[in-house]
Structure formats: C-alpha cells, structure tokens
User: Which sequence fits this backbone?
C-alpha cells in the first residue's frame, strides 16, 4: 500500500510539474520579468522610493508567485552596507529552480491528496482524484487568493509572517469546511463547514501599506488570473494522474511461464 501510494504520488507530481512549469514559463514568467524591469527603473530613478528586491519563486495550490522581500537585507554586513539576498540568475538557472520548486510542490501535494483519499475511504481513480483535487485547489489556491492575491515583484505586501499565518489558517479552515460539507453532509456539519469557509475572510487578510507602485495595474491583474488558472490545471493534473497511476500500479502482473 505504501509503495503504491509513493509511486502514484511521484508520477502525479512529476506530470503536474511538467505541465505547470511549461505554463509558468509561457504565461507568468514574462510578467515577472516585466515587473522586475519596472522595479529596477524605479530604483534607478529614485533609490529612496523602492529598495532593490529579490524574486522569490513560490509554489501556492500548484502555481508560482513572484514576491518581493520588501527590501530585506542581511544586517551582518560591516560598515552599515547591506547585501541582497541570494537569488537564481536569469535565464536557465531561474527556469531550473522554478521547475524544481514546482516538482517538490507537486509531489508533496500528490502525497497529501493520496493520504486524504485513503483517510476518507475513497478508492483512488481519475474521477475521484479530480474531485478531491478541485477541493485542494479551492483550499490551497483560490480561497487564500481572495484575501492575498498572487503578487508580482515591486507590489506592496504585508509582512511575510502575517501573510504565511493567514494563508495556513485559510487553507486549513477551507479544507475542513469542504470536508464537513461534501463528505459528512449532515445539517450540523454543513452549517459548521460554512462557518469555517467564511471565518478567515471575516477576520480579514493582513493589509499592506497603500504606497504608490510603478507597476501597471493590468500586470497585477493578469498575473493573478494566470496564476490561479495555472494552479487549477496543476491540481487537476495531480488528481487525474494520481488516480490513473494508482489504478496502473494496482493491476496484477501476469505471470510468464
């Protein structure tokens, strides 16, 4: 059972990473590069307005988010000077690190999907895997994005620790709410599930300072929409591939005389 789960998760994670990485390079990477160009131009025009920021490629529900580190620097540099945080170089190194991060996220989410299927006593197949994967997309990607949209470099953002806490809280509450509504299906559990779905948004996501940004609004809107679209495809491939791989590895092997 464990070997079968691991094998199916590896296959599903790899296939989802291949598809998602291709979509990222075609749809979101050009926007990240353009946003960095605006950020660099703003820094050159007035260094006091915008500190040089590093690009962090983050996989959130099976899609990449380019986020700035809000000018964070290593304070240990002598003489009061600051050093930028390390980041992969442009071109092939960045593509490689993006693909690696997507692969790690894909395999991890595939393991999680398989564990949830088994915990819910569902026999994995492509149809069941897809249904549960849609739930994973809603919990990990869509619900958090309602309060914290995917961000490009140069966009103002709340402190990282606050954003991470709210993301974890929202993802966990949404996942539990979907479980109570879709799996348990009792009136009391449905009511409790609805409360869990809306509670993080009533509490509110951490707010960023509303400083002016040189980044065109259309870039941010396109990046958020494309990131969520890639995340949906990412999760759909995980669900379909996991169900297919589980069925494939469970077929009895024919004995050869």
Assistant:
């Amino acid at each position: 059972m464990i070997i079968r789960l691991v094998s199916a998760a590896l296959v599903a994670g790899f296939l989802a990473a291949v598809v998602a990485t291709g979509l990222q390079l075609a749809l979101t990477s050009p926007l990240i590069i353009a946003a960095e160009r605006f950020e660099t131009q703003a820094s050159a025009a007035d260094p006091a307005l915008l500190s040089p920021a590093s690009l962090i490629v983050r996989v959130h529900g099976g899609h990449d988010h380019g986020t700035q580190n809000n000018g964070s620097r290593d304070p240990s540099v002598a003489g009061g000077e600051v050093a930028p945080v390390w980041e992969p170089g442009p071109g092939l190194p960045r593509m490689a690190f993006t693909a690696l991060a997507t692969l790690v996220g894909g395999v991890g989410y595939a393991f999680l999907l398989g564990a949830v299927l088994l915990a819910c006593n569902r026999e994995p197949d492509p149809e069941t895997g897809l249904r549960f994967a849609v739930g994973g997309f809603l919990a990990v990607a869509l619900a958090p994005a309602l309060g914290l949209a995917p961000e490009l470099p140069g966009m103002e953002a709340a402190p990282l620790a606050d954003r991470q806490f709210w993301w974890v809280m929202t993802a966990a509450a949404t996942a539990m709410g979907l479980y109570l509504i879709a799996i348990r299906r009792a009136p009391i559990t449905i009511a409790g599930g609805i409360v869990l779905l809306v509670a993080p948004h009533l509490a509110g996501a951490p707010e960023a300072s509303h400083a002016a940004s040189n980044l065109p609004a259309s870039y941010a809107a396109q990046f958020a929409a494309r990131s969520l679209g890639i995340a949906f495809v990412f999760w759909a491939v995980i669900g379909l591939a996991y169900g297919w791989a589980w069925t494939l590895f469970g077929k009895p092997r024919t004995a050869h005389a």
